[in-house]
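Subject: sequence -> structure tokens, single chain

Hey, anyone have a minute? Need the predicted structure for the following. Not urgent.
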Amino acid sequence: MNSNATATGLKVRSIDHVTIIVADLERSRQFYCDVLGMQQVERPAFKFPGLWFQAGATQVHLILEFEGCAPPGYAAAAAARAGLAHHFAFEVDDAPRAAEQLTAAGVQIMGGPNNRPDGCIQVWCYDPDGHVVEVFHRPQ
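Reply:
Had a minute. Here:
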């Protein structure tokens, strides 16, 4: 790709949402709302079940697994090192404290807390379907 690509490209402004497939909506709602502290928001009347959550300026959209959609989770995530698997990340105030809270809630920690080369602290965990979720905080 040439260095001028951004001058004529689409000029993406932000990530609006992340969509994941789940096996159990209530179990996932508990993880994203009760454990991660997201707010459930209204979802349009699609013809398939799901839930939407607000995470700062970004939304997380859940789709309940049904015939014709992708399976929940990532089969290869368990074999990969933390951060080297498909994942999405949420900024928090204190990643080590978040790791303690996740562990206390029974969430499996995949890796961390680790220092990223730019000074951020990262922790990776699994959601109920095996999606890799990163929580991190930026240095002050």
